[in-house]
Amino acid sequence: MTNEVTVPLLPCASIDDIVTFYGALGFSTTYQQRKPYACVGLKREDLNLQFFEIAGFDPEQSYGSCIVLTPDIAGLHRAFAAGMRAAYGKVLVSGMPRMTRPRPRKNADGVRGFSIVDPGGNWIRVFQNPAATPAPAPPSSEGRLTKVLATATVLADSKGDARQAARILDSALARPRADDDPVTHVEVLVYRAELAMVLNDPRTATDMLTRAEHIALDADQTSRAAPAFEAAADLAAALR
């Protein structure tokens, strides 16, 4: 058989909060009921999610999760970010709900991914569909900051351990080297700022963004660092 469809059914404390959040991301409600139990179905193009409400449910203790494969991870992230800016005035990078940025995941063979943590505490893990794009080429020379960033991404964006990821980045940033790639240096500083926001540490976030602004870059490096500076702008807006 072909053309089967699997739709994840995820827990939440309030389907109303779920509908509001996912509505900002461009989802429409396909079904909703209150009895005999509260549940809701949501749809955005070919992406379907369903949620059921549990009285007294604590989203912080949720293990709900699902994987989404998309042929255009950058486009989907941009659409979600635009929806958040329109609904909330900023991209949500801390607290619950929140969204990370697309980054290569070394625990997924370098495939780019980002995560949404919704109001129910569910992790919606979005990955570039390997079938829709060539496999990422291994870097010709992987510097120490690239390796550190990859490890921190797995810890924070995949496992949810932002504190340990921050420690790893802090250790690397405390020992700068002359051969560090300045673009990767910017990416590490911006990611450390994002983790500081997750950890409710706006002072460190501000400091990291300021340091990123002062990294000397040539024209080519500035172009390569554009996604990091876009992320920095979102973080600065969230800090205001």
Q: How is this fold's topology laid out?
A:
Elements: E1 9-12, H1 15-24, E2 28-33, E3 39-44, E4 47-53, E5 65-70, H2 73-88, E6 98-99, E7 103-104, E8 112-117, E9 123-128, H3 144-158, H4 162-173, H5 182-198, H6 202-213, H7 219-224, H8 226-239
Parallel strand pairs: 1-4, 5-9
Antiparallel strand pairs: 2-3, 3-4, 6-8, 7-8, 8-9
Helix pairs in contact: 3-4, 3-5, 4-5, 5-6, 5-8, 6-8
Organism: Paractinoplanes rishiriensis
Protein name: VOC family protein
How would you describe this structure to a colleague?
The chain has 240 residues and is of the alpha+beta class. It folds into 2 domains: 9-125, 2,3-Dihydroxybiphenyl 1,2-Dioxygenase, domain 1 (Roll); 139-239, Serine Threonine Protein Phosphatase 5, Tetratricopeptide repeat. Helices cover 42% and strands 19% of the residues. The chain has 8 helices and 9 strands. The protein has helices spanning 15-24, 73-88, 144-158, 162-173, 182-198, 202-213, 219-224, 226-239, and strands spanning 9-12, 28-33, 39-44, 47-53, 65-70, 98-99, 103-104, 112-117, 123-128. Strands 5, 6, 7, 8 and 9 form a 5-stranded mixed beta sheet that branches. It has a 4-stranded mixed beta sheet with strand order 1-4-3-2, with helices on one face. The longest helix has 17 residues, at 182-198. The radius of gyration is 19 Å and the shape is globular.
